[in-house]
Specification:
5 helices; alpha/beta; 226 residues; single chain; nine-stranded mixed β-sheet
């Protein structure tokens, strides 16, 4: 049975095609989902891709959070559907309250685009099981509003419960609190991060193939759940 992973396209999405390609390279069946639809077309997991949904008006992800498809995504995520939010998708997850905290303007007030080293902190989520805790990976990073912030109590809780999934290595690229690059919900099925694993899935486009593990992890999680 083929595992189907949907990728939502919002107005202003830039990396939806890349995410669909990553799903295919990992061995899954990519399914394009449209922001105005409420049906998820019987997919087994969902990716919210990077870009500038609705032009990043108001706050990044604030309008996309109210797209018709998100009502179904939120409901299904709370029921256990694996959901990955990349960059703008991470912002949408926070705006949807599927993940705590918020993403704010980079502390240096400049857009950043570079290959970014990350440390895998939690390898037990639906999207990270093909990695090992402590592993270092390199994937592209590109954002202008990627600084992860939350109050101290929330940050302490994320640390104490193992919900920090990735940390930035080297110079912090955007001022994220405690060098946090990605987090998960309590159940481990919803993961959000600012760097772009879908841009690191094949040697031709590089810089590494380190990002492919996100998608193979989801496929293994879903197969094991059957």
């Amino acid at each position: 049975m083929t595992t189907r992973i949907g990728v939502v396209t919002f107005p202003g999405s830039l990396d939806d095609t890349d995410a669909l390609r990553a799903v295919r390279l990992a061995g899954g069946e990519p399914v394009a989902l449209w922001h105005r639809d409420t049906s998820l077309r019987q997919v087994d997991a969902v990716v919210l891709p990077g870009g500038f949904s609705y032009g990043d008006y108001l706050r990044c992800g604030a309008i996309a959070r109210f797209s018709p498809v998100m009502e179904t995504v939120i409901e299904q995520a709370r029921a256990g559907l694996p959901v990955l939010g990349i960059c703008n998708g991470f912002q949408v997850l926070c705006e949807s309250h599927l993940l705590p905290g918020a993403l704010t303007r980079n502390d240096h007030l400049h857009f950043v685009c570079r290959d970014q080293r990350l440390k895998v902190v939690n390898a037990d989520t639906a999207w990270t099981r093909d990695y090992t805790a402590g592993q270092e990976i390199t994937v592209p990073l590109k954002n202008g509003e990627g600084g992860y912030v939350a109050d101290e109590r929330t940050l302490d809780e994320l640390e104490a419960t193992g919900r920090v999934v990735f940390r930035y290595l080297g110079k912090n690229p955007n001022g994220s609190r405690r060098d946090i690059a990605g987090i998960t919900n309590e159940a481990g099925n919803v993961v959000g991060l600012m760097p772009h694993p879908e841009h690191a899935v094949e040697a031709l486009t590089g810089p590494t193939t380190d990002g492919l593990g996100f998608f193979t992890s989801a496929l293994k999680t879903l197969v094991d759940a059957r």
